[in-house]
Amino acid sequence: MIVLENVCKDFDTEGGCFHALRGVSLSIRKGCVYGIIGRSGAGKSTLVRTINLLERPTSGRVTVAGVDLSALSPAELRRARRGIGMIFQGFNLLESRSVAGNVAFPLELAGWDAARIAGRVDELLELVGLGGKRDAYPAQLSGGQKQRVGIARALAPEPKILLCDEATSALDPQTTREVLELLRDINRELGLTVVLITHEMAVIKEICEEVAVLDAGRVAESGAVFKVFTVPQSPVTRELVASVMTRDIPQHFAALDFLQEPEEGCGLLLRVSFLGDTAAEPIISGVVRRFGVDVNILYGAIDHIQGVPYGTLVVELSGNGNRDAAMEYLRNLNLGLEVIGYVRRNLGASVAGVV
Ligand SMILES: Nc1ncnc2c1ncn2[C@@H]1O[C@H](COP(=O)(O)OP(=O)(O)OP(=O)(O)O)[C@@H](O)[C@H]1O
Ligand SMILES: [Mg+2]
User: Fold this and answer.
1) Which CATH class is domain 251-354?
2) 88 CA distance to ligand 2 middle (Å)
């Protein structure tokens, strides 16, 4: 649906040329809710603005529904942009127009006749739950209601794509939840592709299917939210998801005596992640039985991503069994597996001593 190929965007600044996007390639499936995350200044807004060519790439290509946007004439581009709605943190409503007038605005620009506009506006206000507010003015609305107007206005020309740049950042948590539910309903009912930038990781975790992590104008990693959040590959992703994923090693482990190199008789500390309804117990007993290693469970937690349970166990492997084969076995079970480090033995006792 949306394909970015090696997109670069340079800005001329007083200090010289600034590379805001440095070769971004992404593919966003039709009907997907796609998240874009990254630190402030990573290039998220710039990236999203290239999708409707509000920002023209310095090089690279943006293709939407098979059409290379940069090859279009100004008139063709205007038409193509009607297929791409956008909502913002600041709502950008016209204060002098009523709710209905705001929603009607893009349709007036597109040359719809009055009767058709009136019908469409009513339909949209029902869709976003503002049927009773059609004659109110923006100043009389709450933040959540304003964003609903923004959504109705963005959806008015029947776009196939909705770009959301920090659309819930000005809202309180409850209102954020309501607006997200609305976006998800719209995504499901209308089959709309939603691209969502947010610094709220809980939002991504809740409604996005896929996510891209931007770091200084590059894609650090991308893929299914499930995967990226549970087994983050890059330091920036680890840092970003830390707030919503219980990934940290419990504090008392930090005090342990970690070794640079494995030494005779040391313990191996592993973080094992379980997705879905995989049961931990048979896996642990399987490792003990098959490979003769001792498994000491040090920490366990269960979290949820989009309703699917996700468990983390921190275990220590020790004893004289075949540790490498045990690791290989765990890896083949398709579990998330991460080596935390080697520690001096009798970990259980020393942890108990620290707690
Ligand atoms: N028109 C411009 N001229 C010069 N530099 C720009 C321009 N637009 C963006 N930049 C720079 O490009 C970088 C990326 O900006 P962008 O707005 O895309 O970041 P962002 O990831 O959306 O950040 P935030 O989370 O703070 O919104 C920033 O360093 C910004 O200063
Ligand atoms: Mg931004």
Assistant:
1) alpha beta
2) 10
